[in-house]
Please model this.
Amino acid sequence: MKVAIITDQHFGARKSSKFLHEYFKKFYDTIFFPYLEENNIKTVIDMGDTFDNRRSIDLWALEWAKENYYDRLQKLGVTLHTIVGNHTAYYKNTNSVNSVGLLLKEYDNIKIYSEVEEVKLDQLKVLFVPWINSENEENTRKAIQKSKSKIVMGHLELNGFRAHRGHVMEDGMNTDMFSKFDLVYSGHYHTRSNDGKIFYLGNPYEMFWNDVNDTRGFHIFDTETLKHTPIDNPYKLFYNIYYEDTNYRLFDTREYESKIVKVIVKKKTEPKNFEKFIDKLYSAGIQELKIVENFDIQENEEFEIEETENTISILNRYIDEAEIDCDKTIIKGILQKIYSQACEVE
Model:
Protein backbone atom coordinates (compact mmCIF):
# COMPACT_ATOMS: atom_id res chain seq x y z
CA MET A 1 0.00 0.00 0.00
CA LYS A 2 1.17 3.51 -0.77
CA VAL A 3 0.42 6.37 1.63
CA ALA A 4 1.11 10.09 1.40
CA ILE A 5 3.11 11.84 4.11
CA ILE A 6 2.79 15.58 4.60
CA THR A 7 3.93 17.72 7.50
CA ASP A 8 4.16 21.25 8.89
CA GLN A 9 1.40 22.77 6.79
CA HIS A 10 0.93 25.69 9.21
CA PHE A 11 -2.57 26.73 8.24
CA GLY A 12 -3.13 30.26 9.54
CA ALA A 13 0.54 31.21 9.15
CA ARG A 14 1.75 34.81 9.10
CA LYS A 15 -1.39 36.10 10.77
CA SER A 16 -3.57 34.17 8.35
CA SER A 17 -2.16 35.98 5.34
CA LYS A 18 -4.60 35.58 2.45
CA PHE A 19 -1.80 36.05 -0.04
CA LEU A 20 0.21 33.23 1.55
CA HIS A 21 -2.77 30.91 1.60
CA GLU A 22 -3.42 31.53 -2.09
CA TYR A 23 0.13 30.30 -2.64
CA PHE A 24 -0.64 27.24 -0.47
CA LYS A 25 -3.83 26.60 -2.44
CA LYS A 26 -1.96 26.41 -5.72
CA PHE A 27 0.06 23.50 -4.31
CA TYR A 28 -3.03 21.64 -3.09
CA ASP A 29 -5.04 22.31 -6.26
CA THR A 30 -2.40 21.36 -8.82
CA ILE A 31 0.05 19.04 -7.04
CA PHE A 32 -1.22 17.36 -3.88
CA PHE A 33 -4.84 16.45 -4.61
CA PRO A 34 -4.33 15.57 -8.29
CA TYR A 35 -1.59 13.14 -7.23
CA LEU A 36 -3.85 11.51 -4.62
CA GLU A 37 -6.65 11.09 -7.15
CA GLU A 38 -4.51 9.88 -10.04
CA ASN A 39 -2.73 7.30 -7.88
CA ASN A 40 -5.72 6.26 -5.75
CA ILE A 41 -4.04 7.21 -2.48
CA LYS A 42 -6.50 6.60 0.35
CA THR A 43 -4.28 7.19 3.40
CA VAL A 44 -2.52 10.42 4.36
CA ILE A 45 -0.22 10.84 7.36
CA ASP A 46 0.12 14.36 8.74
CA MET A 47 3.21 14.49 10.95
CA GLY A 48 2.34 17.61 12.89
CA ASP A 49 2.03 21.40 13.02
CA THR A 50 -1.03 21.42 10.79
CA PHE A 51 -2.11 24.74 12.28
CA ASP A 52 0.36 27.52 12.92
CA ASN A 53 -0.68 29.23 16.16
CA ARG A 54 -0.77 27.04 19.25
CA ARG A 55 -3.12 29.39 21.15
CA SER A 56 -5.64 30.56 18.58
CA ILE A 57 -6.72 30.40 14.97
CA ASP A 58 -8.31 33.01 12.76
CA LEU A 59 -11.82 31.92 11.75
CA TRP A 60 -11.11 32.76 8.12
CA ALA A 61 -8.04 30.47 8.19
CA LEU A 62 -10.04 27.65 9.79
CA GLU A 63 -12.72 27.92 7.11
CA TRP A 64 -9.98 28.00 4.46
CA ALA A 65 -8.36 24.84 5.87
CA LYS A 66 -11.65 22.97 5.95
CA GLU A 67 -12.73 24.03 2.48
CA ASN A 68 -9.38 23.52 0.75
CA TYR A 69 -7.99 20.53 2.64
CA TYR A 70 -10.15 18.62 5.13
CA ASP A 71 -13.41 18.63 3.16
CA ARG A 72 -11.59 17.49 0.05
CA LEU A 73 -9.90 14.60 1.87
CA GLN A 74 -13.24 13.51 3.26
CA LYS A 75 -14.91 13.71 -0.15
CA LEU A 76 -12.17 11.52 -1.65
CA GLY A 77 -12.62 8.90 1.08
CA VAL A 78 -9.11 9.45 2.42
CA THR A 79 -8.22 8.44 5.98
CA LEU A 80 -6.07 11.11 7.61
CA HIS A 81 -3.75 10.21 10.50
CA THR A 82 -2.83 13.45 12.29
CA ILE A 83 0.05 13.55 14.78
CA VAL A 84 0.13 16.42 17.28
CA GLY A 85 3.12 18.74 16.87
CA ASN A 86 4.42 21.56 19.04
CA HIS A 87 2.42 24.19 17.13
CA THR A 88 -0.84 22.26 17.57
CA ALA A 89 -0.38 21.60 21.33
CA TYR A 90 -1.81 24.46 23.42
CA TYR A 91 0.54 23.91 26.37
CA LYS A 92 4.28 23.35 26.15
CA ASN A 93 4.31 20.57 28.75
CA THR A 94 1.38 18.45 27.54
CA ASN A 95 -0.41 17.47 24.31
CA SER A 96 -3.76 16.94 26.03
CA VAL A 97 -5.24 20.19 24.69
CA ASN A 98 -4.55 20.51 20.97
CA SER A 99 -6.05 22.35 18.02
CA VAL A 100 -6.49 19.34 15.71
CA GLY A 101 -8.39 17.43 18.38
CA LEU A 102 -10.68 20.36 19.13
CA LEU A 103 -11.27 21.74 15.63
CA LEU A 104 -11.70 18.58 13.57
CA LYS A 105 -14.27 16.58 15.54
CA GLU A 106 -16.81 16.75 12.73
CA TYR A 107 -14.64 14.57 10.45
CA ASP A 108 -15.07 10.81 10.82
CA ASN A 109 -12.13 10.13 8.50
CA ILE A 110 -9.56 11.81 10.77
CA LYS A 111 -7.65 10.05 13.55
CA ILE A 112 -5.76 12.22 16.06
CA TYR A 113 -2.64 11.07 17.91
CA SER A 114 -1.71 13.13 20.96
CA GLU A 115 0.16 10.26 22.64
CA VAL A 116 2.55 7.64 21.30
CA GLU A 117 0.67 4.80 19.59
CA GLU A 118 1.42 1.81 17.38
CA VAL A 119 -0.69 1.90 14.22
CA LYS A 120 -1.11 -0.68 11.49
CA LEU A 121 -0.86 0.63 7.93
CA ASP A 122 -1.93 -2.28 5.74
CA GLN A 123 0.32 -5.06 7.12
CA LEU A 124 3.00 -2.74 8.47
CA LYS A 125 3.17 -1.64 12.10
CA VAL A 126 4.29 1.97 12.53
CA LEU A 127 4.96 3.78 15.80
CA PHE A 128 3.44 7.26 15.78
CA VAL A 129 5.32 9.62 18.10
CA PRO A 130 3.77 13.06 18.67
CA TRP A 131 5.58 16.04 20.19
CA ILE A 132 7.61 14.90 23.22
CA ASN A 133 7.22 17.04 26.35
CA SER A 134 7.74 16.77 30.09
CA GLU A 135 4.43 14.99 30.65
CA ASN A 136 4.74 12.27 28.03
CA GLU A 137 8.51 11.76 27.75
CA GLU A 138 8.73 8.83 30.17
CA ASN A 139 5.75 7.05 28.60
CA THR A 140 7.14 7.70 25.12
CA ARG A 141 10.51 6.18 26.02
CA LYS A 142 8.81 3.10 27.45
CA ALA A 143 6.69 2.71 24.32
CA ILE A 144 9.80 3.01 22.14
CA GLN A 145 11.59 0.33 24.14
CA LYS A 146 8.57 -1.98 23.98
CA SER A 147 7.69 -1.42 20.31
CA LYS A 148 8.27 -4.14 17.72
CA SER A 149 7.71 -1.73 14.83
CA LYS A 150 10.39 -1.16 12.23
CA ILE A 151 9.21 2.35 11.39
CA VAL A 152 8.67 5.53 13.42
CA MET A 153 6.71 8.54 12.17
CA GLY A 154 6.50 11.59 14.38
CA HIS A 155 7.18 15.19 15.24
CA LEU A 156 10.64 15.12 16.76
CA GLU A 157 13.33 17.62 17.72
CA LEU A 158 16.59 15.72 17.27
CA ASN A 159 20.23 16.78 17.30
CA GLY A 160 22.37 16.90 14.19
CA PHE A 161 19.75 17.82 11.59
CA ARG A 162 19.07 21.08 9.79
CA ALA A 163 16.27 23.14 11.27
CA HIS A 164 16.64 25.21 8.12
CA ARG A 165 19.48 25.67 5.66
CA GLY A 166 22.63 26.76 7.44
CA HIS A 167 21.32 25.95 10.94
CA VAL A 168 22.02 22.51 12.37
CA MET A 169 20.11 21.71 15.57
CA GLU A 170 22.49 21.32 18.51
CA ASP A 171 20.17 21.36 21.53
CA GLY A 172 17.54 18.77 20.65
CA MET A 173 17.17 15.17 21.81
CA ASN A 174 19.81 12.53 21.19
CA THR A 175 19.06 10.18 18.30
CA ASP A 176 20.13 7.10 20.30
CA MET A 177 16.59 6.50 21.57
CA PHE A 178 15.55 5.61 17.99
CA SER A 179 18.55 3.40 17.14
CA LYS A 180 16.50 0.16 17.23
CA PHE A 181 14.28 1.20 14.30
CA ASP A 182 15.02 0.67 10.62
CA LEU A 183 13.62 4.06 9.56
CA VAL A 184 12.44 7.21 11.29
CA TYR A 185 10.39 9.90 9.53
CA SER A 186 9.75 13.25 11.14
CA GLY A 187 8.21 16.64 10.77
CA HIS A 188 9.16 19.77 12.76
CA TYR A 189 12.19 20.97 10.76
CA HIS A 190 11.03 22.58 7.52
CA THR A 191 13.98 21.59 5.37
CA ARG A 192 14.80 18.09 4.15
CA SER A 193 17.77 16.30 5.71
CA ASN A 194 18.72 12.79 6.77
CA ASP A 195 21.50 10.60 8.14
CA GLY A 196 20.49 7.50 6.17
CA LYS A 197 18.08 6.27 8.84
CA ILE A 198 16.33 9.35 10.19
CA PHE A 199 14.58 11.48 7.58
CA TYR A 200 13.22 14.97 8.08
CA LEU A 201 10.82 15.30 5.16
CA GLY A 202 10.35 19.08 5.17
CA ASN A 203 7.18 21.10 4.76
CA PRO A 204 5.19 21.48 1.51
CA TYR A 205 5.98 25.08 0.56
CA GLU A 206 8.12 28.14 1.21
CA MET A 207 6.96 30.37 4.06
CA PHE A 208 9.91 32.56 5.08
CA TRP A 209 13.04 34.03 3.57
CA ASN A 210 15.23 31.24 4.91
CA ASP A 211 13.25 28.86 2.66
CA VAL A 212 14.47 30.45 -0.57
CA ASN A 213 15.71 27.94 -3.17
CA ASP A 214 14.99 25.04 -0.79
CA THR A 215 13.07 22.13 -2.33
CA ARG A 216 9.66 21.49 -0.72
CA GLY A 217 6.73 19.12 -1.24
CA PHE A 218 5.33 15.88 0.21
CA HIS A 219 6.27 12.18 0.09
CA ILE A 220 4.81 8.83 -0.90
CA PHE A 221 5.68 5.91 1.37
CA ASP A 222 5.35 2.27 0.26
CA THR A 223 4.41 0.01 3.18
CA GLU A 224 5.76 -3.06 1.35
CA THR A 225 9.14 -1.84 0.12
CA LEU A 226 9.64 0.72 2.94
CA LYS A 227 10.78 3.22 0.32
CA HIS A 228 9.74 6.86 0.20
CA THR A 229 9.53 9.06 -2.87
CA PRO A 230 9.51 12.87 -2.80
CA ILE A 231 6.84 14.70 -4.80
CA ASP A 232 8.29 18.17 -5.20
CA ASN A 233 6.38 21.43 -5.16
CA PRO A 234 7.55 23.39 -8.23
CA TYR A 235 6.08 26.70 -7.06
CA LYS A 236 8.47 29.23 -5.53
CA LEU A 237 7.49 32.27 -3.49
CA PHE A 238 10.82 33.90 -2.61
CA TYR A 239 13.38 35.04 -5.17
CA ASN A 240 16.88 36.52 -4.90
CA ILE A 241 17.85 38.77 -7.82
CA TYR A 242 21.48 39.87 -8.10
CA TYR A 243 21.78 43.32 -9.64
CA GLU A 244 25.10 44.08 -11.33
CA ASP A 245 24.36 47.01 -13.62
CA THR A 246 21.73 44.73 -15.12
CA ASN A 247 20.10 46.02 -18.27
CA TYR A 248 16.53 46.69 -17.22
CA ARG A 249 15.33 46.67 -20.83
CA LEU A 250 16.43 43.04 -21.32
CA PHE A 251 15.49 41.78 -17.87
CA ASP A 252 12.44 39.48 -17.97
CA THR A 253 10.23 40.11 -14.94
CA ARG A 254 7.29 37.84 -15.81
CA GLU A 255 8.13 35.05 -13.35
CA TYR A 256 8.13 37.50 -10.42
CA GLU A 257 4.45 38.35 -10.54
CA SER A 258 2.91 37.91 -7.05
CA LYS A 259 6.30 36.87 -5.66
CA ILE A 260 8.40 38.15 -2.76
CA VAL A 261 11.65 39.49 -4.18
CA LYS A 262 14.98 40.52 -2.75
CA VAL A 263 17.30 42.55 -4.98
CA ILE A 264 20.92 42.16 -3.91
CA VAL A 265 22.98 44.99 -5.35
CA LYS A 266 26.49 43.95 -6.33
CA LYS A 267 27.24 46.82 -8.70
CA LYS A 268 25.31 50.04 -9.31
CA THR A 269 27.12 52.70 -11.33
CA GLU A 270 24.00 54.33 -12.81
CA PRO A 271 21.38 55.05 -10.09
CA LYS A 272 18.76 56.09 -12.66
CA ASN A 273 19.05 52.77 -14.46
CA PHE A 274 18.69 51.00 -11.13
CA GLU A 275 15.51 52.97 -10.40
CA LYS A 276 14.12 51.93 -13.79
CA PHE A 277 15.04 48.31 -12.97
CA ILE A 278 13.10 48.53 -9.70
CA ASP A 279 10.17 50.26 -11.42
CA LYS A 280 10.00 47.41 -13.92
CA LEU A 281 9.82 44.89 -11.07
CA TYR A 282 6.96 46.79 -9.45
CA SER A 283 5.18 46.95 -12.80
CA ALA A 284 5.36 43.17 -13.00
CA GLY A 285 3.07 42.96 -9.96
CA ILE A 286 5.46 41.65 -7.33
CA GLN A 287 3.99 41.11 -3.87
CA GLU A 288 6.87 42.48 -1.81
CA LEU A 289 10.36 43.89 -2.45
CA LYS A 290 13.50 44.07 -0.34
CA ILE A 291 16.70 45.79 -1.50
CA VAL A 292 20.08 44.85 -0.01
CA GLU A 293 22.99 47.16 -0.72
CA ASN A 294 25.12 46.98 2.43
CA PHE A 295 28.05 44.59 2.20
CA ASP A 296 30.05 45.72 5.23
CA ILE A 297 30.82 42.11 6.07
CA GLN A 298 33.09 42.01 3.03
CA GLU A 299 35.42 44.68 4.45
CA ASN A 300 37.60 41.78 5.51
CA GLU A 301 39.36 41.12 2.23
CA GLU A 302 40.20 37.57 3.27
CA PHE A 303 36.52 36.68 3.73
CA GLU A 304 34.82 35.80 0.45
CA ILE A 305 31.11 35.20 0.01
CA GLU A 306 29.83 32.67 -2.50
CA GLU A 307 26.58 33.42 -4.31
CA THR A 308 25.26 29.95 -3.42
CA GLU A 309 25.55 30.59 0.34
CA ASN A 310 22.59 31.73 2.40
CA THR A 311 22.68 34.26 5.22
CA ILE A 312 23.04 31.80 8.11
CA SER A 313 25.85 29.82 6.49
CA ILE A 314 27.69 33.10 5.78
CA LEU A 315 27.31 34.24 9.40
CA ASN A 316 28.36 30.86 10.78
CA ARG A 317 31.46 30.75 8.61
CA TYR A 318 32.31 34.33 9.48
CA ILE A 319 32.12 33.49 13.19
CA ASP A 320 34.21 30.34 12.69
CA GLU A 321 36.95 32.34 10.97
CA ALA A 322 36.81 35.29 13.37
CA GLU A 323 39.55 35.61 16.01
CA ILE A 324 37.34 36.06 19.07
CA ASP A 325 37.90 34.74 22.58
CA CYS A 326 34.47 33.35 23.48
CA ASP A 327 32.15 30.40 22.87
CA LYS A 328 31.34 30.66 19.16
CA THR A 329 28.48 28.17 19.49
CA ILE A 330 26.61 30.59 21.76
CA ILE A 331 27.09 33.46 19.30
CA LYS A 332 25.88 31.29 16.42
CA GLY A 333 22.79 30.30 18.38
CA ILE A 334 21.94 33.92 19.17
CA LEU A 335 22.35 35.01 15.55
CA GLN A 336 20.30 32.06 14.26
CA LYS A 337 17.42 32.92 16.59
CA ILE A 338 17.54 36.60 15.61
CA TYR A 339 17.65 35.71 11.93
CA SER A 340 14.74 33.26 12.23
CA GLN A 341 12.66 35.89 14.03
CA ALA A 342 13.55 38.49 11.40
CA CYS A 343 12.49 36.13 8.60
CA GLU A 344 9.07 35.72 10.20
CA VAL A 345 8.38 39.45 10.51
CA GLU A 346 5.56 40.62 8.24
